[in-house]
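COMPLEX REQUEST
Ligand: phenylalanine
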Amino acid sequence: MSKSRGQWGSKVGFILAASGSAIGLGNIVFFSANAYKFGGGAFYLPYLIALFVIGIPVMILEFGLGHQTRRAFPESMHKAAGKPGEFVGWWALMNACFIVFYYITILGWVLGMLIGAFGQLWQETTPLKGFAMDELANPHGYFFSMLSSWKPMIFVAIVWILNAILVRRGVATIEAAVKVFVPLMWIFMIVLIVRGITLENGFQGVWLLFTPNFEVMKDAAVWQGAFSQIFFTLSLGFGVMTAYASYLPKDSDQTSNALLTSLMNCGFEYIAGLAIFSILFAFAMVPAASTLSMMFFIVPTGISQMPGGDPMVMAFGLLFFLLLLLAGLSSSVSLVEGLASSLIDKFRISRAKAVGLFCIFGFVGSAMFTLPQVVNPGLENDGTLGLTLLDLVDHWAFSYGLLIVGLLECLLIGWAFGAKRLRAGVNSSSRFNLGSWYDWLIKLIIPALILYVLIVGIKGEFAGLYGSDYGPNYKDGFSWMVNSPQFILVGWFVLTVGASLIFTLRGKYSEGSQ
Ligand code: PHE
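STATUS: Structure written out below.
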């Protein structure tokens, strides 16, 4: 079996792929938007603590698991902790499934913006048909007029086709792609930073990221934000890192792989923050509540004011959206690979069939988030850009799903499989030996921390369910959905748990398929 599963061609190939998965939209925009929301420097201490106390240890766990079992996430969790483990594995993938639906929708819009960056995006205004406001200043107008048309369906289809091409032969095609994408991403980012901090007043934005605020750290919301951000940005709690590590040769060093991947990811995230904050400061812009507004019109508006005339504006606009597209693609392929390899492992179907079926299904999923009916630009300032479906699903899958998976995987590996056993396996091929402190991190400390933020978060939901305040102004489109945000919560829960149960109970892993 293991012959047909394939293997990374080199350690560099693996590190590029794992860091390509980790570095994505989360690094370039969600980090900056979160940091801004929580007051800049107030965010990065909880973030750094989350990185070292939770992120790196959980990445060692996910890499170690894949490397030791040589299977995708559900089967490796099955081998480690039986059926309950497998259920958690599928549940992680079901959340990943929802996330990849809208992640690719967002990439479809990025592709649309990239095309716009050749010219249209920089016009003065764009008329908006069929909405309360007749026209909006660009790039606002361009973005919303694109959203209210059917064009993004085509862009989304293109992004799904690109994903299918990139994972069609598994690690072989992924490795070839990331060898080009990841170095390019770094180069583009460095060009953007140099431009950002050399703009007049640009450097001042950087201070915002370095001024800590200890007051805000008392707020549990900052910690929930930091923990979810760490899981998302490091691609943890999705089963992706386990799938990637299952293609590693026997003797590879998981501790150093995890350290390298995490530090590269967070280094990129940090410098992306410098680029974004310097552009925001140079042009005195305040990002609204939404992370997406940052990428779709705040930064582009900044770019449109860059000195050097039209050619410069166009060049930096293209660079920014191409950067987003490459970073997003090297992330989305890991999600598709994580899902496809799990289906291949369990149902013994061919790779071509698994990838083909999943990409068609995925397109339908992304189409739900792309429908012009689910968008209402009138709600731009409610923190969702009027993308209510995306926002509500994201809230549950992102802020809760990932953390719950993290909690359960630590408990199951820590207690059922045995943290000591996992550590022994990791240490056997690592240069740096993990001590017994690692066991207690996995068994107790990380679960306790995650549980704490989950409980505080859930208590907050009882005081007012997320999304319940969107209702009053929301008249068009899917108003039923917004008027009953419980519907999305129940829908997400029933669908993900139901599908995970079906996948766990159906079919059987072949014995000894090591
Ligand atoms: N880590 C990616 C980002 O920061 C998102 C992602 C999560 C990608 C999980 C793959 C798997 O954008």
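REMARKS: Residues 11-123+150-373+400-460 form a domain with the Hydantoin permease fold (CATH 1.10.4160.10). Residues 73-116 form the longest helix (44 residues).
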